[in-house]
Amino acid sequence: MRLLHDPVKLLLTVPALLWALSFHEFCHGLAARLVGDRTAERHGRLTLNPFAHFDVVGTLMLLFVGFGWAKPVPINTRYFRHPRRDLVIVSLAGVAGNILTAILSVLFLRYCGEWWYSLTGRAGLTVVIQMISINMGLAAFNLIPIPPLDGSRVLEAFLPYKYMGYYYWLERYGMIIILVLLLTGIINVIFEPIISVLWYFLPF
């Protein structure tokens, strides 16, 4: 909740937050479109407009806790050409978009950081740093294999059919489980190793 005590930093975090959520869901929709599913496009979700992807609880969690979610892009696996393979592609597309954003932001700081700082001062630097932090947090959180997060969709694609009943049972209570894990802090046991691995591959 530190951002609540720093309204300037809170304001400078908003651009990174809006981009991270919008680009994440856009990448899901684009990947689905490329493998044959136009559901997201028909629902107006193949867009970078943040209001099309806005989820109140998920956005507040991402802003003040460091991990959260947007409104999931609708997909229909019946239109996939290769359902299991395409489910993995679509599920990881949002995470890939966030990681790509973080990598490009790091490279921007490396090669243009001094120029950017001289032009925008600490405010501009904070925006780019938040772009890295928010996108990495969103990517890592979504890799957690609990429905409806993206990591669970990857798990679903590789899960033997005889275990699908257990998965669908878990899916019904996924959000409750996630909220309990967040409130108790247990989520960090899963989240921290994932984000540590992702940070390792950033080109600092």
N-to-C span: 27 Å
Average pLDDT: 90
Number of strands: 0
Q: What are the secondary-structure elements, in order, as H or E?
A: HHHHHHHH
Percentage of helical residues? over 70%
Strand fraction band? under 5%
**Rg on CA atoms, Å:** 17 Å
Largest sheet, described in full?
A: none
Low-confidence stretches: none
> How many separate structural domains?
1
Structural shape: globular
Give structural notes.
The chain is mainly α and 204 residues long. It has one domain (2-200). Helices cover 71% and strands 0% of the residues. It contains 8 helices and no strands. It has helices at residues 7-34, 39-42, 56-64, 83-142, 150-158, 164-172, 174-184, 187-200. The longest helix is centred in the middle third of the chain and has 60 residues, at 83-142. It is globular and about 60 Å long. The chain starts with 6 loop residues before the first helix and ends with a helix. The model has no long low-confidence stretch (mean pLDDT 90).
Features:
204 residues; mainly alpha
Secondary structure blueprint with pairings:
Layout: H1 7-34, H2 39-42, H3 56-64, H4 83-142, H5 150-158, H6 164-172, H7 174-184, H8 187-200
